[in-house]
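Hello,

Our lab assistant flagged a job as stuck in the queue for most of the afternoon. It eventually completed. Since we weren't sure the result was trustworthy after the delay, we are filing this so someone can double-check. Below is the sequence as submitted and the structure that was eventually returned. Let us know if re-running is recommended.
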Amino acid sequence: MNARNITLYLLMGYFGISTVIQANVLSELYKKALQKSELISQQSSVLSGSKARVSEAYSAFFPLINISAQYNRQPLISGFASDIFPESQTILKAQLSQSLFKGFRDFNAIDQLKWTQIHHEFSLKAAQLDLAKEVVKAFYSLKSEKEDASLLKEAISMNKLRLIELKKWRRLGRVKTSSLFELESSIATQEADQLNAELQIALAEKVITFLTDQIPDTLSSEPYPPQIVSFNWQELALKKPEVMSAEFEFKSAQAGTHIATGAYLPSIDLIGNYYPIRDVGALKNSPWDASIIATLPLYLWGTIDTQITQAKSLQSQKEQMLSLTKRKAIEEIENSLLILKNGFLQCEKLKVANTYALENYTAKDKEFKLGLISLSDVLIAQTNWVQTQRLYQKIKNNLCLNYELLKISAGIPFPE
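-- returned structure --
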């Protein structure tokens, strides 16, 4: 398979397989699971907090306005005028401070928070798709086990009718007593299998109830109409939420490096004061003042270098994680395609095997009634047919499950 161009053309129904779609049921179960999931609620809360931090970051561009009141009292200093060093002084001040330049750290901080917000958005989508996978697995597990139990029930019913018939034949001397024991043993084995199937149904129901708080009313299926479904799977794989989440997490780390580097640049601030009350002192008749303050870091004992090193290290880690996430996404899609293609081939072979197993069982049954073969031959043929049916049904369900999982892995949502 060419990893650079993974395009699959799926002809649903091409092999004559009764593949099924449960779009409406799955969609409803998924909606219930979304409402119930604590993890989804937690991710939504994280996203809300991230949006709030972006809004908060924009406040760095607006001035700060504060009002303060101050009362001072001090002893008089001899030799100095009281207007210069008053004994008491009352000041009411309104101050406006505006940052003019911060070494672009404020712009980079907004970028970082924006990338982090988008990272959390895709993390939420990834969590939703993971939940969708759990719902699909639980649904098809329940469906498969119920169909398996139904096949076993049908086989047991057939054998019990045969047992009634053989008991009549035994009284007429047409069959041996050992044949009755053999059939009853076969029934008991099938009943044991049915008990196990019922246990698996109960477990599957617990899983789907845990996820959605309900068990689907119906598991009836609609066949896929024959259609070609074509996607560029690699392109979809690289747009998966977990890949996009890792990409924006990397961008956030890049912005963090720019923020750390900007600490070497000067910061410039404008500060203005207005004094409604300044009753004494040399500046009592001056109602306002303004100043521009420029600060340039000269030496911070390696603090800035350390912060830059840490930021670059984090950026490198996120870059490696992005690369790994992309490779895993493509590998997951490739593996899913291989499993799906193999599932189609298995279904094709098992459909043929099921047809021949039924014909073999029917022929053996006729031969037994004609006295040509023993009951053991019939039971072996019947067991082979039932097991082939069960396997065929499971493979068909697995095929549908794997197709749904492939779509979810590629980020294709359930239809509304």
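-- support follow-up --
The delay was a queue issue, not a problem with the job. The result is valid. The beta strands are 7-12, 20-21, 64-73, 88-101, 222-223, 227-232, 267-278, 288-295. The chain has a mean pLDDT of 82.
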